[in-house]
Amino acid sequence: MPLRLLVEPSGQDGLVQAITGWRPEVSANWSLLNSYVGLIFPLMASATATFLFRQFFLTIPDELCDAARMDGASPLRFFGTILLPMSRPNLAALCIIFFLFG
Question: Which residue would you say has higher pLDDT here, 98 or 56?
């Protein structure tokens, strides 16, 4: 059920817009409705995933970051070529956790 349908009947729509400047409604222009991305995207921001990846990224030694910086890697390249491949076991564990306890 879209947020707009929950907020408008209760009269909270104008209050939310006055406080935040944002009109609460779900946009169909994102192509998230009736797609796999729309199912997967909310799971990426879960507390379990945040905690799991935070704990993993805290174990990365500073020397690895320094070595990548000396090699001329940007932060995005460091994430994409070093951190993301190293976090594949975490991704697999997260997929298993969501599949089992979903």
Answer: 56
